[in-house]
Design a protein that fits this description.
Elements lengths: L2 H14 L3 H7 L11 E4 L1 H7 L3 H13 L4 E7 L2 E6 L1 H15 L13 E5 L11 H19 L3 E6 L6 H13 L2 H25 L2 H14 L3 H25 L5 E2 L6 H13 L4 E3 L2 E4 L14 E4 L7 H16 L3 E7 L3 H13 L8 E6 L2 E3 L2 E2 L10 H18 L1 H4 L3 H21 L7 E3 L1 H4 L7 H18 L15 H11 L1 H10 L4 H20 L7 H25 L8
Parallel strand pairs: 4-5, 4-10, 5-6, 10-11, 12-14
Antiparallel strand pairs: 1-3, 2-3, 7-8, 8-9, 12-13
Helix pairs in contact: 1-2, 1-4, 5-19, 6-16, 7-8, 7-9, 8-10, 9-10, 11-12, 14-16, 18-21, 18-22, 19-21, 19-22, 20-21, 21-22
The chain binds one RNA strand of 76 nucleotides through helix 3, strand 9, helix 13, helix 18 and helix 21.
RNA sequence: GCGCCCGUAGCUCAGUGGAUAGAGCGCUGGCCUCCGGAGCCAGAGGUCGCAGGUUCAAAUCCUGCCGGGCGUACCA
């Protein structure tokens, strides 16, 4: 912790005769930075001291002003506003950032602990849509964040490659498919077959039975069914891999639902024998009702359908057990949309009933869905936006912006292409992280393609500006300049913003929400741009220039790290 | 019916107990012979869904209601 804050808290605690942690708990930045650096609201101490908050503040202020690192302490009604020794504060903050560099904001709290994150997990035979982006981007960022905190993170891509839908797909392919068209149009062709299947099934319900029959054959190991299925998987995976490459995402484990298909039979058997599962209406279920809560019965977890085939809940159960046995995880996170809360509630409860103590370490990291024109995306209704199309448009638009600014950017053609890609991806990624995770996102082209204001490109641009200054400075970044040269409010404000980074990384991890970090990063970029606009760096008197270079260096380090944790590239030029 | 989520500026969203509720977009008006204008500054714009309650203090906590979304046994 900041030593100045500690001194203040200790002195105040001493004076008020309360624990220092109590003071630290209320000590905060004031409403307006012109009031000072910190404020102590005295309401919390009024009751036990039997004094009004105003009286307490009036007495506390002079006591705190005696501290050498406190420049000014003023009682303002019930608040004590503190202005501290700025050079010392700046030396502490910037010194820490410059010393720790890439490690700033990290910790070793995760030493020896493993976190398994199940994310992205797309369904085979469907194109990547913007709806898939949310889980992909959230999961990837969480992974980066936990790694920064010292955890070993296993990113799991639990591909949706098993289930009734593949019976339907095989049935559709057998009726209308062609090898050439699938080779040529990959997932898009598979998707067309799938859509057609459901259209025709409306007219001819017998088709559904045909699909179910194929899935049964698949589960029973029928060679023809398996061969077709494997081919669909391969075709799809090649496409997905291409997107993951563009997004800079790698998984430690790619293991679809199909990998658990041999585990489900014995698992169901075991659960039946132990009396945890039972047969009901021809299916096998795990009842989840609590004793005696009549009237609000919990729906059971369905393990096996009456036709003998399994469900994804069955495979999820097997996967959880498999992952615990393999990794002894500290936590396993499922980054899956909020519509599936009930499924996970059931899943976790079933595992608890089975007696696994680690069931409490399973977390459903729920998020709001992506809507189009206020409606849920429907692949069947054709109300869908493909990731590929969004990416193309974003990259194209950025290319044009780069061309317009050509004289300034000094980029080679290759660099331009790379930057267009990195910034295009950045725009899409940031758009997915710019709301707290439970908010639905209404997809709008003008929003994703807006690169001004609160956006990925704005953050990246800010970083490139700082990089430009350091590039032109040419010298080494001074590690311990005279910080009393930094007297502008924008300089102090920026430094204080940098100090918040570690806490924001922590908060994002704790709440499983990278938004907390992306929100902070925007504020940081804003502080940087305000500073940049009001304080020239290069060519200023040496003392000022050196101190400002240190500030720029520290700011760039934090912004870059933050972008990385969100899954965005931080180009040096753009 | 029950469960979960959401309701804050024209639009999209922050803010989960502390001072005068903040951003972005849009709108109006400014700012480089100077490190990158994808920028910065200023302005207009709000009965925080409604009604009670708790508290020295409520957008924030509690209760009820209204509006919207999702889920609720053989899809994933």
């Amino acid at each position: 912790m900041n030593p100045i804050v500690r001194e203040i808290a200790e002195r105040a605690a001493d004076f008020l005769n309360v624990p220092a942690a109590r003071v630290e708990g209320v000590l905060a930045p004031p409403r307006d930075e012109s009031l000072g650096d910190y404020t102590i609201p005295c309401f919390a101490f009024a009751k036990e001291l039997r004094r009004s908050p105003q009286e307490i503040a009036a007495e506390l202020a002079p006591a705190l002003e005696q501290l050498p690192s406190v420049e000014r302490a003023e009682a303002a009604g019930p608040y004590v506003n503190l202005t501290v020794d700025r050079p010392r504060l700046l030396r502490h903050i910037l010194g820490t950032v410059l010393k720790e560099g890439e490690r700033y904001g990290g910790s070793d709290e995760g030493q020896g602990k493993t976190i398994v994150i199940d994310y992205s997990s797309p369904n085979i035979a469907r194109p990547f849509t913007i709806a898939h982006m949310r889980t992909t981007v959230l999961g990837h960022s969480l992974k980066k964040i936990y790694e920064h905190l010292g955890y070993r993170v296993i990113g799991v891509n639990h591909l949706g490659d098993w289930g009734t839908q593949f019976g339907a797909l095989i049935a559709a392919y057998k009726r209308w498919g062609s090898r050439e068209r699938v080779e040529k149009d990959n997932v898009y062709e598979l998707f067309r077959l799938y859509v057609r299947f459901h259209e025709e099934a409306k007219k001819d319900p017998a088709l559904e039975d045909e699909g179910r029959a194929w899935f049964k054959r698949l589960e029973e190991g029928d060679p023809e069914a398996l061969e077709l299925w494997q081919w669909f998987v391969d075709v799809s995976w090649r496409v997905f891999q291409h997107y993951y490459e563009i997004l800079g995402i790698e998984f430690e484990e790619v293991r679809g639902e199909s990998a658990y298909r041999d585990m489900t039979g014995p698992l169901i058997q075991e659960l039946l024998e132990k009396g945890i599962a039972k047969e009901s209406r021809g299916a096998v279920i795990v009842p989840l009702d609590e004793e005696g809560d009549e009237g609000k019965e919990e729906p059971p977890l369905l393990l096996r359908k009456s036709d003998g085939t399994t469900l994804y809940a069955t495979r999820d159960l097997a996967a959880a057990i498999y992952h615990y046995e393999k990794y002894q995880f500290h936590k396993k996170l499922y980054v899956v949309d909020a519509g599936q809360s009930l499924h996970f509630k059931q899943l976790f409860k079933a595992l608890e009933k089975m007696g696994y103590p680690w069931a409490k370490d399973l977390v459903h990291v729920a998020f709001g869905v992506v809507l189009i024109e206020e409606q849920r995306m429907s692949t069947r209704a054709g109300r869908v936006v493909f990731f590929e199309d969004v990416l193309k448009q974003a990259v194209e638009r950025i290319r044009r912006i780069i061309e317009e600014a050509e004289k300034k950017t000094e980029l080679s053609d290759e660099e331009k292409e790379q930057v267009a890609q990195d910034v295009g991806v950045g725009a899409i990624v940031y758009a997915n992280l710019s709301r707290s995770r439970l908010q639905n996102i209404n997809f709008r082209w003008d929003e994703v393609l807006s690169f001004e204001g609160r956006s990925g490109p704005y953050l990246q641009y800010t970083h490139a500006r700082l990089a430009g200054v350091l590039r032109k400075y040419e010298g080494e970044i001074p590690q311990d300049p005279d910080y009393s040269a930094l007297t502008q409010p924008q300089e102090v404000a920026l430094a204080k913003k940098l100090e918040q980074f570690p806490a924001r990384v922590q908060a994002a991890a704790q709440e499983y929400d990278p938004f907390l970090l992306s929100d902070y990063l925007y504020d940081l970029a804003l502080a940087i741009n305000k500073f940049y606009d009001s304080c020239r760096v290069l060519g200023e008197p040496p003392e000022i220039e050196r101190a400002r270079i240190a500030l720029v260096g520290a700011a760039k380090t934090v912004l870059k790290k933050g972008l990385e944790l969100l899954g965005l590239k931080a180009p040096e030029k753009m």
